[in-house]
Amino acid sequence: MKLCTAWGSNIYTLHVDNGADIQSQSRVLVTGAAGRTGRLVFEKLKKDIYFEPIALVRTERSARNLIKSCDLCGLEHVFVCDVVKDLNFDEPPEELEGIDSMIICTSAVPILSKRSLFSALLKIPVNLIRRRKLVDFRSLRFKFKEKQNPEQIDFGGQVAQINLAKRLKMKKVVIVSSMGVTDPSHFLNSVGKNFDGSGNGDILLWKRKAEKYLIDSGLSYTIIHPGILTDGEPGLEEILIDVDDKLIEYGDRSIARADVSSLCVAALTVGKEKNVSFDCISSNFDNSFSPKSAEEVLTDFLLSGKTANYTL
Q1: pLDDT at res. 179
Q2: What is the set of active-site residues?
Q3: Mean pLDDT across the chain, nearest whole number?
Q4: Maximum average pLDDT range among 12-26, 165-179, 240-254
Q5: From CA 35, how far away is CA 222, in angstroms rounded?
Q6: Up-side HSE of residue 16: CA atoms within 13 Å toward CB?
Q7: Which of 6, 72, 165, 258 has the fewest beta carbons under 10 Å from its own?
Q8: Are residues 260 and 177 in contact, defined by beta-carbon separation less than 8 angstroms?
């Protein structure tokens, strides 16, 4: 393994030469591969002989952690770059030549405000005496790190990635977004804001703007809106797909990250010729039957001709 500069002063490429013949494999760039969902997408593609995934992560530390945590030792490429500021180059590096598809798993990540946590903890004795809930979780506030808010990551960063896909003439772009994007009043849009409405929030609104940019780009696309992401095992529940946040009506709106990663790969196989945007959750199924695979569920959905309505 060697670490070398791919382009610019802050972008690196980690190479591991395992002597494999990958000429017939489809090269896929997985961005946000250091995250829990992105890592699962990357690992699933690595297990598929038809794909050669390349992981894109933001820091060198994330790259090394990815290599250390990955059970598969044959990592071909790991790119380290900031999608917000490092993708604006005149000529793409030769290491990225021949990439067929991109799966975008990047997202702004909120962190808990220490001040609001400290305030909530101070109120515990009073709440205990008054027989109230010890911690009012609605009082907790979240914020985003500097230069990593939703406008910068979920819109600006994704636009930069989509522009990269256009320059490289990629055949397919898949975005892992989120359910709730049709509702401006969704509570996730308040994350990062102060009580007076100021601050950096509106994560779902910025995600939806990036989705529209992809749709208008002329690239072939699949946009996936998962429900609440869990760390469960794949294939244990039936995957349900619909559009326009109709699945929010279900009581349990969760789905395993592993199932979402399977849908991402299915978008490159059974969905490669289709432009579609959909929501997904999972549900308990009749134990007398095995749940359908992600490929089967997506194939059935594509036959319906449905896709999200971006005029809502």
Answers
A1: 96
A2: 178
A3: 86
A4: 165-179
A5: 20
A6: 16
A7: 72
A8: no
Torsion of CA 234, 240, 244, 249, to 10 degrees: -100
For 149, residues 6+ apart whose C-beta sits below 8 A from its C-beta are 108, 192, 200
Distances, alpha carbon 61 to alpha carbons 15, 58, 65, 77, 80, in Å:
15, 9, 6, 15, 9
Q: How many whole angstroms separate alpha carbon 124 and alpha carbon 131?
A: 10
Element (H, E) at 29: strand 26-31
Tell me which H or E stretch contains 297: helix 294-304
Q: What radius of gyration do the chain's Cα atoms show?
A: 20
Specify whether the CB–CB gap between 159 and 213 falls below 8 A. Answer: yes
Give the pLDDT score at 60. 87
Under 8 Å between Cβ of 66 and 78: yes
Report how far apart, in Å, the C-alpha atoms of 173 and of each of 212, 276, 282 are.
13, 11, 24
Residue 83: φ, ψ to 5°: -65, -20
> Residue 176 belongs to what H/E stretch?
strand 172-176
| Dihedrals phi, psi of 159, to nearest 5 degrees | -60, -40
More confident residue, 40 or 115: 40
**Chain segment 215-243, per-residue pLDDT in tens:** 999 999 999 999 999 998 888 899 999 99
* pTM exceeding the 0.85 threshold for the entire prediction: yes
Average pLDDT of span 38-63: 92
Q: Which of 104, 109, 77, 105 is nearest to 93 (CA)?
A: 77
pLDDT at position 137, please?
A: 63
- Evaluated on CA atoms 151, 152, 157, 159, the torsion sign reads positive
Q: What's the token pair of residue 259? A: 């199932």
User: What is d(CA 253, CA 283) in angstroms, rounded to the nearest whole number?
Assistant: 8
